[in-house]
Give the backbone structure.
Amino acid sequence: MTQTPVSPTRPSFTILGTGALGGFYGSRLLVGGADVRFIARSDLAVIRRDGLRIDSPLGDRVHCPVAVYADRDPIPRSDVVVIALKTTENHRLAELLRPLVHQGTILLNLQNGLTMEEELAAAFPMARILGGVCFLCSNKVGPGHIVHLDYGAVGLAPFDERDRGLLEPLIAAFAAGGIKAEALPSLQLARWRKLAWNIPFNGLSVLLGADTDELIGDPVARRLAERLIGEVAEAAAACGCPFAEGFVTTLLDQTEKMTPYAPSMHLDYLAKRALEIEYMYRRPLREAARKGRELPAIATIADQLTYLDRRNRATD
Amino acid sequence: MTQTPVSPTRPSFTILGTGALGGFYGSRLLVGGADVRFIARSDLAVIRRDGLRIDSPLGDRVHCPVAVYADRDPIPRSDVVVIALKTTENHRLAELLRPLVHQGTILLNLQNGLTMEEELAAAFPMARILGGVCFLCSNKVGPGHIVHLDYGAVGLAPFDERDRGLLEPLIAAFAAGGIKAEALPSLQLARWRKLAWNIPFNGLSVLLGADTDELIGDPVARRLAERLIGEVAEAAAACGCPFAEGFVTTLLDQTEKMTPYAPSMHLDYLAKRALEIEYMYRRPLREAARKGRELPAIATIADQLTYLDRRNRATD
């Protein structure tokens, strides 16, 4: 039973969430010549007036005018809807997507965490679901103003292997905008590999008030990160996605060589924004539990984060 | 092979460490009529000049003059040396004790943690080792000035069961000073039971910046405390000291009914003093590991505390 993928050679895009991630990738797709619409909320008026500004080593850009919409506006149908909201907004994601998804619409999820694509597939059976993992260091510094600092590569994979044929035109669209995109052999493995970085370094950056270079450079914090990564590896293997030998060592080596970096959760915490605990910690804990695995170190930091997140926003 | 315990009916005491704990209990022993010498360091000059002041619901006292010594002074021999230093000073404990310990000297250790008595027994085979667990809420508010807030009961047990006969005159000396002291059936069990409170509530008070009432009143922090207590219970059982059924529930209920309380580690952290991580966390982890038990949640918070403690004192 095969399913013929709809594979437009020059896909059009709607970017849901015009922040540090969505604004950056949308800009690169525009630069590459794609038709791109943006959905914005708090920055809508500024972007309408002044355009979308991206400062980047790839070249500074101001897209003005730019096709930007409120989420309740009627929006032209696109081949691809890119989900670039934080997972803390996922309670309203289905509602936001409903007017954007038609038979065969490609949903490209760029969020961090686990099980987002399962939920999209359940809510939108008429859509084709892809996932992407982004290696991007980018911050929103003001309304409609994004500063891209470093990196930018994207790894893409289909949620359902029968949709693998959809990747090629997307990879081409990213490449046209100067973004190195590649097809990954397994979305689930890619998600778990990303968690192997996100779970220790996002959480510990908040709990210890430290950036990646301070954590990786301290023997005790590094050992703690390794303990957490070990639990991620165990859970990934239990869920059918074993890490290759040497993966953890490489991950730590790469982190050691990174430019000092404040993980997004640390920035969110300092700005008193909601933390992405549910999809980054609770879902991996739940999936591991379904395979009979407890992850006590991860559960410990998840509970600490939940407590601090609640208090952090309560005292705002 | 029996050993006849030396059991003076009116023992004399040297209190090593005239802080919130040693100052308080030494004062109560004085009030009860015992011969008590104090060893002080930073507060020595003030205590010599103004005496030792204890504000307490048991009655305010100023002991002036009082027998107070520097640790290098020649000190009259006492029957009992009470160890009331923080365990963060244990690297110099043997040196401090050497001039105080003679054949048959009773060493009464009132520190929190695990394995202190094993170390004393190894270093001082000519001594009789007792351990005490104190339920005391007391703070040093200035040099030689201690405020006793609440509680004060002491549980006593010998390190070597053949020394159980030593307990009675000590219990009488405490009782004469208004302190409820009782003989406990097992020192190791008492130490593990105390850790079941200290490990969660001391550590989390630092990591979450919260006092006991805030922790126990929050469902997520309480669940986290329960996870840590569960690991203590597991380790205690593996080490031959299983908790009685219902112990954990009672512990949490009692904590819930306590007056809001800043655990000593939280106060130490805020004052940028060294934290008692080694004996309160590392030794239990080590003892459990010797029995083949990993305690991943406790190891996780111990590493966090080590990192924060080091940074806290480095930036002083």
In short: Chain A touches chain B at residues 204, 207-208, 210, 218, 220-221, 223-224, 227-228, 231, 296-297, 299-301, 303-304, 306-308, 310 (CB under 8 Å). Chain A is about 45% helix and 20% strand. Confidence is low (pLDDT under 50) at residues 1-5 of chain A.
